[in-house]
Design brief:
The chain is of the alpha+beta class. The protein has 9 helices and 12 strands. The chain has 3 domains: 154 residues, Beta-Lactamase (2-Layer Sandwich); 98 residues, Helix Hairpins, CATH 1.10.287; 146 residues, Heat Shock Protein 90 (2-Layer Sandwich). The chain has a 5-stranded antiparallel β-sheet, sandwiched between helices. Strands 7-9-10-12-11 form a 5-stranded mixed β-sheet. A hairpin with a 2-residue loop joins strand 9 and strand 10. Helix 5 runs antiparallel to helix 6, helix 6 runs parallel beside helix 9 and helix 7 packs parallel to helix 8. It is rod-shaped.
């Protein structure tokens, strides 16, 4: 078990190409060994069958001669013959044998009791001389027991098998070398794109920007799909890095003004003794800027969360209830301004992410109350499986030069940073629409401004 574990650990530490070549070599070795064994067995069986047929025919002729008491007939080239009595004494024998017994004592005993003995003398490997296949049977002649031994040379059969073994070894070796080479070249070719991907990834690790893997467009295999997946991952990483850079840039750019104002207010307050009323005004100003910082930070964090998540969780919600909740916080503001807030929503259930859509509608209503005039209309209906939501007002509308950049971060119709709002409201609305797989559009209707959201539901 420990040796197996060590071999497994050693194998896993090898390069992938080496492991593949070893796997191919081992598999091909097993296949070639099995095929060679089958071929050898079939040829050996055929040769043995022919040799046994010759031996049996020779044995019969000897048996007949012994029974008839005639001269023993000659056999195949190089064959031998021997006739023994019941006690194992040699009665007749080939000149090459003289009085040398071909059978052992045990074999003599077995044949004397009626068994037929067949065995080989000499081995295939290593090469030996005088290789034979003999067969012995008991024969009754003139009421006397005789043991007849017939033997034929195995030289041609053994030579053919040795030649076959040599040819099979050479053919298997060459086939194994060729298969290993083809496996090596195939593995290298298959893994070459992976090495290119690794090299490109190394350049990314060294700080290269906007690098993408060179993936062929006319292939559709596992390596190609891996390349597309890695490129998609690099796109996501670049987008994430870009969001982080934008977040840091936006935060540092937009937070500087309120922080500077807070510092200025505090410096003035500490410059000389102030009355209680002056200190109260200073604290109120600082509180305003702090609230502005909080709103700005929350807006930036919401945008970052939407951008990084890249998707929403759509759940069934009643459309009318969602809009009523979204505008509830703004009704008192509208009443104080003497304006009307009208909600006209279809009585249907839609699949949207209320967590994000609710504040998006609130931002649109807040913008309409802050920058528009007259009544604010919030209408929503479902057409062809898509939710079409509009917020309109009766104000002057968007400035023509502002419309193309209305959904940009920190875009304001009033370029002064002292104006109300962070410039992130419409950017947040577009982020919500994009996360839902929809669109956001701003336009002037001639009687005011309209912002339209179209979302799948």
């Amino acid at each position: 078990m420990r040796l197996r574990h060590r071999l497994g650990s050693w194998f896993r530490r090898l390069p992938v190409v080496t492991r593949l070549v070893l796997a191919v070599a081992v598999t091909m070795s097993l296949v070639l060994t099995g095929a060679a064994g089958l071929v050898y067995w079939r040829v050996e069986t055929a040769l043995d069958q022919q040799l046994n047929d010759d031996l049996t025919t020779y044995q019969r002729s000897l048996d007949q001669a012994v029974r008839a008491g005639t001269k023993l007939p000659p056999g195949p080239s190089g064959s031998l013959q021997q006739v023994l009595d019941g006690q194992g004494s040699v009665l007749r024998s080939s000149d090459a044998l003289r009085h040398e017994l071909l059978l052992t004592a045990a074999e003599l005993d077995a044949v004397a009791h009626g068994a037929t003995v067949r065995r080989d003398v000499g081995s295939l490997l290593p090469i030996t001389s005088d290789t034979l296949r003999l067969q012995a049977r008991r024969v009754t002649a003139a009421r006397q027991t005789r043991i007849v031994v017939a033997a034929v040379r195995r030289g041609h059969r053994d030579e053919a098998l040795r030649e076959l073994l040599a040819q099979l070894a050479i053919a298997s070796g060459l086939t194994l070398i060729a298969a290993s080479y083809v496996g090596y070249r195939t593995a290298r070719a298959a893994l070459r794109p992976v090495e290119r991907y690794r090299t490109a990834a190394a350049t990314l690790a060294d700080g290269a920007q906007n690098t993408r893997l060179d993936v062929p467009a006319d292939h559709d295999d596992e390596i190609t799909r891996l390349g597309h997946t890695l490129n998609h991952m690099l796109d996501r990483l670049d987008a994430s890095a870009e969001r982080q850079r934008r977040f840091v840039a936006d935060a540092s750019h937009e937070l500087r003004t309120p922080l500077t104002l807070i510092r200025a207010e505090l410096d003035v307050a500490l410059h000389r003794p102030r009355s209680a009323g002056e200190l109260t005004d200073t604290l109120r100003s600082v509180d305003t800027e702090v609230q502005r910082l909080i709103d700005l930070s929350n807006a930036l964090l919401d945008l970052e969360e939407l951008g990084s998540a890249g998707h929403t969780t759509a759940l069934p919600v009643r459309l009318a209830d969602l809009l009523d909740t979204a505008v509830a916080a703004h009704r008192r503001t509208a009443e104080r301004a003497g304006r009307v807030l009208i909600v006209d929503a279809a009585r249907v259930t839609v699949d949207v992410d209320a967590r994000w859509l609710r504040p998006a509608v609130g931002n649109l209503v807040d913008n309409a109350l802050r920058h528009g005039r007259g009544a604010v209309h919030v209408t929503a209906a479902v057409e062809d499986g898509r939710l079409r939501l509009r917020v309109t007002d009766d104000g002057p509308g968007f400035a023509p030069d502002f419309l193309p950049r209305a959904f940009h971060r920190f875009a304001r119709a009033d370029a002064s940073r002292a104006s109300e709002g962070s410039g992130l409201g419409l950017a947040f609305v577009q982020a919500v629409a994009t996360a839902h797989g929809g669109t956001a559009h701003a336009e002037n209707t001639g009687q005011g401004a309209t912002v339209t959201l179209v979302l799948p539901c």
